[in-house]
Amino acid sequence: MLSQDLNFLTAALRLSTKYSVQSLRRLLISSLAEIFPDTLDGFRQRKNKKLFQMFVGEAFVAAELARVGEAPILLPSILYCCCTYPTEHFIDSEQLDWTQKRACVLGRERMMHQFGKLVICLTSPHPNLAQECEVGQTICGDCDHNSLCTVPDWRPALRRAMEFAPWLGDRLPSAFSNTMDLQWSNGVCSTCFGNLQELYDSERRRIWEELPGYLDLGTWNALREATDM
């Protein structure tokens, strides 16, 4: 079992990297990559990993491990987690350099904008999703285009929509989990609700794929190539 002592992990990574003990270094990096992965599915499983508790509320300490282990592939997940903390929590950390702190502040704003646009799509009738609406009504007598569940009591579909309001930008809500944030609203048919679920998940996957760019880290592929695993 891998040690959960942070000082030991840092020293082991530093020495294995310095003296090219690649088998040990790769073991350590692979274990850290289970907590700070490069895939959304991996991120959703991270709470089940043994090292997870080491970094709860303190993901920024892993930035030092990524640096000494020459593993930039870990940084997008690390900095994303930092974006979910209050600003002063990561600004005061000694493990993040100024460039990384700046990336967290700017990246959080960029991601809030993306999630804000997604909230708008989920909280109002969206004609692009209405092709198979079960209760939609014909917009005009000369065409077959349907509106999406045109009912007066359409309600916000996202339970935590207010958390993405631009004026609540001190921290980024944790929006990549696999929990069901969508709620069924009276008057929304099963087809439209299913379409909303697909939209919600596909957009979160898109945002994840663009995560390194929001944090000024380039692309996932470039980070993978720069990390010897």
List strands and helices in order, with pairings.
Blueprint: H1 6-18, H2 22-35, H3 40-44, H4 61-68, H5 75-83, H6 87-91, H7 98-122, H8 190-209, H9 211-214, H10 220-226
Helix pairs in contact: 1-2, 5-7, 7-8
Question: Mind explaining what this structure looks like?
Answer:
The protein is mostly helical and about 230 residues long. The chain folds into two domains: about 5-100 and about 210-225, no CATH class; about 105-210, no CATH class. The protein is about 50% helix and about 0% strand. It is built from ten helices and no strands. The protein has helices spanning about 5-20, 20-35, 40-45, 60-70, 75-85, 85-90, 100-120, 190-210, 210-215, 220-225. Helix 7 packs antiparallel against helix 8 (about 190-210). The longest helix is centred in the middle third of the chain and has 25 residues, at about 100-120. The chain is elongated. Residues about 135-145 have low confidence and may be disordered.
